[in-house]
């Protein structure tokens, strides 16, 4: 960390990371600051992972324009950044004439938004596209351009690429204050560090209202809208070939059946306004609502397949559209707030849009000679053929050591995660998928802790689940023995 930055982006979720990567293609000194110990630990880790098909919002909204544009950017991004992404297609299922009328409006949105290949389906066509659908389906919508992605892995890749092209990532940097002089801001962190920057982009997700207040810029409120989801085993018979939506309500896209990019099935999410920006609880009532709604779409959905559940909070703002504008109060300060769904889909288009705003506001952008959009692809044990594995093991025997048996993750992949800077249990989990399978880390957690300790030199009692005080070990067996004898 040194000197004066041209641009500092606050928040390393998918939005801040996409902006950092975009700006790294220009001759600029850029900082990406994040309050957590790793990137993508906010809203961007707990979502449905859908690359939306461009039909839920009408073409007058900024969010629909950026959704459609963002969707189209993912094939190229996958080439460059190697994250799990499949353009599997999306279906919206209607079970009566009222729902079919809602679906027809979505179809019209899709046509107006120029969503590629969008199609209205009758009963036969939709069942043909997805035979696991409830046979009571009347018809629906097919959006072949929709897809699924591993969201945290996407963020990790964006940040790896940004860093490769010169962006400085500062984690554990919680912006709590700012001092403003003529042509720059000093950003102060809770731990006493500070940096200076000419321009600041506020991409702080749920906390973008607080950042705006710290900068004495626009006054707005971010209200969390909670979404609970359940993850089903990779062998669940509910796994569909396409993402299945119900006809939506006016507040939510509804509770879905989602085949995840890595082969498990997800059901949910709920949509409930809450006050607490840290409320990650799940409830029995919502569990029942999710499963009955999902089973209405796909009868094979079963509680017996549950692996785990989680909650994400959408950062909603009054007016319900994205709020992406240069501040009209503070110079060289850009607001990127209210980025709820489809923020993941729109992220690369938002990054482009923010770059354009910065340019109009006077930031000088000249392309960086030597910018390299590609990062290295880490081979995966479970995606490799026997011949590929033999070659990998011959070069690096750690590929022959399977650490996570449920997800088939080798020691080499865990070492790669740690060497990329993901040195907490959650960091390794989201980078590799280790501990995400049926046993949820029951078998491999201690093996992973040993690898992190060996690679970083940290002792076992220094290791954390996700930074801060989330230590994994706070007593040694000997401590208990001594206390018990006393
Ligand atoms: C349940 C659910 C399902 C969703 N499903 C989809 C979907 O299928 N498809 C889709 O397109 N979108 C979906 N979304 C929306 C999508 O997840 C969000 O739009 C997106 O992740 C928002 O990213 P972000 O970078 O703005 O926020 P975040 O990921 O929260 O990033 C903001 C970052 O700022 C950091 N920060 C905050 N305050 C400070 C500070 N003071 N100093 C430094 N750093 C700070 C935070 O720690 C955080 O990492 C879903 C959302 C939810 C909740």
Give structural notes:
Keywords: Oxidoreductase. The chain has 486 residues and is α+β, with helices and mostly antiparallel strands. It has three domains: 1-86 and 148-221 and 318-377, FAD/NAD(P)-binding domain (3-Layer(bba) Sandwich); 87-147 and 223-314, D-Amino Acid Oxidase, Chain A, domain 2, CATH 3.30.9; 386-462, BFD-like [2Fe-2S]-binding domain (Arc Repressor Mutant, subunit A), CATH 1.10.10. It has helices spanning 14-23, 62-72, 74-81, 97-112, 123-129, 151-164, 208-214, 284-297, 343-360, 386-395, 411-419, 425-432, 445-456, 477-485, and strands at 4-10, 30-33, 50-51, 85-86, 90-94, 119-122, 139-143, 147-149, 168-170, 175-181, 184-189, 194-202, 222-232, 243-246, 256-259, 265-268, 272-273, 306-317, 323-326, 333-337, 402-404, 409-410. Strands 1, 2, 9, 10, 11, 12, 19 and 20 form an eight-stranded mixed sheet that branches. Strand 11 (184-189) and strand 12 form a beta hairpin. The chain starts with a strand and ends with a helix. The model has no long low-confidence stretch (mean pLDDT 95). Flavin-adenine dinucleotide (FAD) binds next to helix 1, strand 18 and helix 9.
Short description:
The chain is of the alpha+beta class and 486 residues long.
How many separate domains? 3
Which stretches of 5+ consecutive residues score pLDDT under 50? none
The chain-level mean pLDDT equals 95
| Largest sheet features | 8 strands, mixed
Provide a count of the helices: 14
Number of strands: 22
Give me the CATH fold name of the largest domain: FAD/NAD(P)-binding domain
Cα distance spanning the termini: 49 Å
What fraction of the residues are assigned to beta strands by DSSP? 15-25%
- Percentage of residues in helical conformation: 25-40%
Oligomer: single chain
Shape descriptor reads: globular
Radius of gyration over all CA atoms, rounded: 23 Å
Q: Which cofactor or ligand species appear?
A: flavin-adenine dinucleotide
What's the CATH architecture name of the largest domain? 3-Layer(bba) Sandwich
């Amino acid at each position: 960390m040194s000197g004066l930055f041209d641009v500092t982006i606050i928040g390393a979720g998918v939005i801040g990371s996409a902006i950092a990567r975009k700006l790294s293609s220009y001759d600029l000194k850029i900082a990406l600051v994040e309050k957590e110990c790793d990137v993508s630990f906010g809203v961007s880790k707990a979502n449905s992972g859908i690359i939306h098909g461009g039909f839920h919002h009408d073409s007058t909204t900024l969010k629909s324009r950026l959704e459609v544009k963002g969707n189209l950017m993912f094939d190229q991004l996958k080439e460059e950044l190697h994250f799990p992404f499949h353009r599997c297609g999306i279906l919206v299922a209607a079970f009566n004439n009222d729902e079919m009328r809602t679906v027809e409006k979505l179809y019209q949105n899709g046509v107006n938004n120029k969503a590629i290949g969008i199609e209205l389906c009758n009963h036969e066509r939709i069942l043909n596209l997805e035979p696991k659908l409830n046979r009571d389906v009347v018809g629906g919508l097919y959006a072949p351009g929709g897809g699924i992605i591993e969201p945290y892995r996407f963020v990790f890749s964006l940040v790896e690429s940004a860093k490769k092209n010169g962006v400085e990532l500062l984690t554990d940097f919680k912006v709590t204050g700012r001092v403003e002089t003529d042509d720059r801001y000093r950003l102060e962190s809770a731990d006493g560090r500070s940096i200076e920057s000419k321009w600041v982009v506020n991409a702080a997700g749920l906390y973008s209202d607080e950042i705006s207040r710290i900068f004495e810029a626009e006054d707005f409120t971010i209200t969390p809208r909670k979404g609970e989801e359940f993850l089903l085993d990779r062998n669940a018979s509910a796994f569909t070939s396409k993402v299945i939506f119900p006809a939506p309500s006016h507040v939510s896209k509804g509770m879905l059946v989602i085949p995840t990019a890595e082969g498990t099935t997800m059901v949910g999410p709920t949509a409930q306004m809450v006050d607490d920006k840290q409320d990650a609880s799940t409830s029995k009532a919502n569990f029942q609502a999710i499963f009955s709604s999902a089973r209405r779409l796909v009868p094979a959905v079963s509680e017996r397949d549950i692996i785990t559940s989680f909650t994400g909070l959408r950062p909603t703002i009054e007016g319900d559209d994205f709020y992406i504008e240069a501040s009209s109060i503070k110079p060289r300060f850009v607001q990127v707030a209210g980025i709820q769904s489809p923020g993941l889909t729109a992220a690369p288009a938002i990054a482009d849009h923010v770059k354009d705003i910065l340019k109009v506001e006077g930031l000088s952008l000249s392309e960086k000679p030597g910018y390299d959009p590609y990062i290295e692809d880490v081979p995966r044990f479970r995606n490799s053929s026997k011949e590929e594995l033999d070659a990998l093991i011959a070069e690096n025997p750690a590929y022959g050591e399977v650490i996570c048996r449920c997800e088939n993750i080798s020691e080499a992949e865990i070492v790669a995660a740690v060497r990329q800077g993901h040195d907490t249990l959650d960091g390794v989990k989201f980078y590799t998928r280790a501990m995400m399978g049926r046993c949820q880390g029951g078998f491999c957690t201690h093996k992973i802790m040993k690898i992190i300790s060996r690679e970083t030199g940290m002792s076992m009692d220094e290791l954390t689940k996700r930074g801060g005080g989330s230590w994994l070990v706070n007593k040694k067996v000997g401590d208990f023995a001594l206390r018990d004898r006393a």
